[in-house]
Amino acid sequence: MARPPLQKATSRPAHHGPDGRFRNPSGSPARNAGLGDMLPFLWRMTRKRGHLTVPPAGHVLSPAEVRAGMARLGNHDRLTWLGHVAFLMRINGVTLLTDPYLSANAGPGRFGPRRYVPPALGVTDLPPLDLLLVSHNHYDHLDAATVAALPGKDRLRVVVPLGLGGFFRQRGYAHIDELDWYDSIDHAGVTVTATPAVHFSRRGLRDTNRTLWAGFVVTSKADGRQLYFSGDTAHGAVFREMGQRLGPIDLALVGIGAYEPRIIMQASHATPEEAVAIARDIGAKRLIGMHWGTVVLADEPQFEAPERLARAAAAAGYAPHEAGIMKIGETLAF
């Protein structure tokens, strides 16, 4: 007997809008900021661009300390914070790089906010990469100059949310996976799963939410350990669902910076307290704060976030060694 023809699905996920754009999960905070909020904020950011931000002693490791820290752990599972949201990781023999913003400016060319500390490693200092994970298309996460300069485009596998593949194909990458939320790929010793995020995408004037935004869970096939990389996200109801589907998480890397003013940032970035809530929602055993201490993107004092994170983590029951921050260039065992 002949099989009936397959029926094409007519329903679409709730975060896929009818106009081809994407939207945040149900239960996410509303985006209420108007021009009266945005224009003064953009003016303040323009003025801050010329101010010198001096990091505290010990915030950035020297190149010799960076090299020594990586050499100390050798081929063991580890992660190195390059600054902002860029992490160099080795998990079960696979070398990964996240959101590689390594240029001087978070913007096109010489425009956009300028970082006040250099990355711990430049493009030429990186080891051969197996996987490149990019969470969304904002300039402080998707840096065109870094993407163009990375070697090994014929073998490096790029994992991105829906709609971002073309950016990498135009720059010579041969192996690209575009994932929707909860889609997964397997690569050698790891599984990478794209996860929901509460944010938005825009790179130009007319492309708002044309590409998806996401976080990632990286799972070691050897022992099932899981690392979560949040990308950019606010807190929302979706993280309880994510915890039920993918938790528990052994180590969560969650953004803790660029949270003021709340009228603008509440729908895009978590406060340090909300980062702790995200970690608790997904069942994270350990938490490291990222997306701070590198470039001025918002109104809050640049080195306030770690103090707020420490207080919130303690109140939520995390021990001091279970939640905190890294120095730029520091390498930790995973």
UniProtKB/TrEMBL annotation:
<dbReference type="InterPro" id="IPR001279">
    <property type="entry name" value="Metallo-B-lactamas"/>
</dbReference>
<dbReference type="InterPro" id="IPR036866">
    <property type="entry name" value="RibonucZ/Hydroxyglut_hydro"/>
</dbReference>
<feature type="domain" description="Metallo-beta-lactamase">
    <location>
        <begin position="105"/>
        <end position="292"/>
    </location>
</feature>
<dbReference type="Pfam" id="PF12706">
    <property type="entry name" value="Lactamase_B_2"/>
</dbReference>
<feature type="region of interest" description="Disordered">
    <location>
        <begin position="1"/>
        <end position="33"/>
    </location>
</feature>
<protein>
    <submittedName>
        <fullName>MBL fold metallo-hydrolase</fullName>
    </submittedName>
</protein>
